[in-house]
Design a protein that fits this description.
The complex is a heterodimer of chains A (184) and B (186).
Chain A: H1 3-9, H2 14-22, E1 29-38, E2 44-45, E3 49-55, H3 60-65, E4 69-83, E5 89-96, H4 104-110, E6 112-120, E7 124-128, H5 130-136, H6 140-149, E8 151-157, E9 169-183
Antiparallel strand pairs in A: 1-9, 2-3, 3-8, 4-7, 4-9, 5-6, 5-8
Chain B: H1 2-20, E1 26-38, E2 46-58, E3 61-71, E4 75-78, E5 85-88, E6 92-103, E7 112-126, E8 129-145, E9 151-163, E10 169-183
Antiparallel strand pairs in B: 1-2, 1-10, 2-3, 3-6, 4-5, 6-7, 7-8, 8-9, 9-10
Classes of the chains: A alpha+beta (184), B mainly beta (186).
């Protein structure tokens, strides 16, 4: 076969060769999702708040890819809020790398608020799903930085109720969904 | 409103392509197909559509200015406590770019097989996160059939890789079919 013709036949391979040289590392990146469940017994009632710690460092997907972590792309938290009071309550969720905050004042001053205005009628419950969560989310960048470390603590408080220590608004059925990208 | 803006941009783009290519053989065309995320557990399969011009610079080389609007499908996750389905909405990507196509483009009445290498600007929208406009690269292959002197029917597979703010990227396999209409002298 003519040598020139043979060369021409394989010309279409040239783009594939070129792309391998000019592409950035994002070409070899994937996105994973961790669905982390917090046991109800790990949602601890403390001085005027509920708290739970999210630790994804023991998740196998995280272990496999944490060394090549590119970015935390999304974090969603779903939970059930049970209001045992006869009047409506509005809850907030704060996050911190400090799991030892001891009262609501410390939470308000040291932690970062990520959810506000979660209203639940008296003697009723509310399931916060992903869509509702995103509508309430704020300070995502702070939450993202905390999740990058693999561990953070969330504090749920009802600031207007003056509840302490026998809190009457309970946080239950917490699920945290972390989406991250990492090199392959 | 969004659709009107997109259609206006597409029209401008096609008119521009036609002007630039007025000296030689060129085509304009449209395509549609599937957008399949590669290695992305948070996105489902979606659809795409777009428009492009093809300017044949040499018998083996053409350039294709292009516009692509692609969507990801929603992704369902199961809540491990309630067992209910949690649905995460997929985002969308608006892309403008230029692909080089390398193959055998001389002559008609036969199939043309070609490789694709491109660069593009992509605006990614994924609620509730802010939009981001990022660089992308694309590569792939296609085949075009020419039943007449002026019409081409083509199918192509293109990997579209987009960098993300903060690191990482999104890689998608785009499978499309389209129609091209040729103008200009042979």
């Amino acid at each position: 076969m003519d040598k020139k013709k043979t060369k021409k036949r394989y010309l279409w391979l040239l783009p594939l060769v070129l792309i391998a040289f000019v592409s950035g590392c994002w070409l070899f990146s994937g996105t994973w999702v961790i669905i982390y469940m917090v046991d109800n017994e790990d949602v601890v009632a403390a001085q005027g708040f509920y708290k739970f710690t999210v630790d994804i460092t023991e998740e196998s997907v995280w272990k496999d890819h944490k060394d090549d972590l590119d970015n935390i792309e999304d974090i969603a938290i779903t939970f059930k809020l049970i209001n045992n009071l006869s009047s409506a309550a509005t809850a907030r969720v704060y996050v911190s790398d400090d799991g030892t905050l001891s009262d609501t004042s410390a939470v308000k001053s040291s932690a970062t608020i990520i959810l506000d205005g979660i209203s639940v009628p008296g003697n009723d419950s509310l399931q916060v799903e992903m869509a509702g969560y995103y509508d309430l989310l704020q300070n995502f960048e702070v939450l993202r930085d905390l999740v990058k470390t693999g561990i953070f603590t969330a504090y749920g408080i009802v600031p207007d109720m003056g509840i302490a220590p026998d809190i009457d608004v309970e946080f239950r059925d917490v699920v945290v969904i972390v989406t991250f990208s990492a090199g392959l | 409103m969004k659709r009107t803006v997109c259609l206006s941009l597409m029209a401008l783009f096609l008119i521009g392509t036609a002007s630039v290519a007025s000296a030689g053989k060129f085509s304009i065309g449209g395509f549609a197909g599937l957008n399949i995320p590669i290695g992305q557990e948070d996105m489902g399969n979606g659809t795409l559509f777009g428009a492009k011009g093809r300017i044949l610079l040499l018998p083996f080389l053409g350039v294709e200015p292009n516009f692509v609007f692609s969507q990801y499908g929603d992704k369902d996750h199961t809540n491990p406590i309630s067992g209910e389905t949690m649905t995460r909405e997929g985002g969308d990507i608006t892309s403008f770019g230029v692909d080089a196509v390398i193959g055998t483009f001389s002559g008609f009445s036969k199939a043309r097989f070609y490789g694709i290498l491109g660069i593009n600007s992509n605006t990614l929208k994924w609620e509730p996160h802010p939009d981001q406009t990022r660089l992308g690269l694309s590569f792939g292959a296609g085949i075009e059939f020419l039943p007449t002197d002026v019409f081409g029917i083509e199918v192509r597979a293109r990997v579209h890789s987009i960098s993300l703010e903060g690191g990482g990227g999104r890689n998608n396999l785009e499978l499309t079919a389209g129609l091209n209409y040729y103008f200009g002298p042979e």
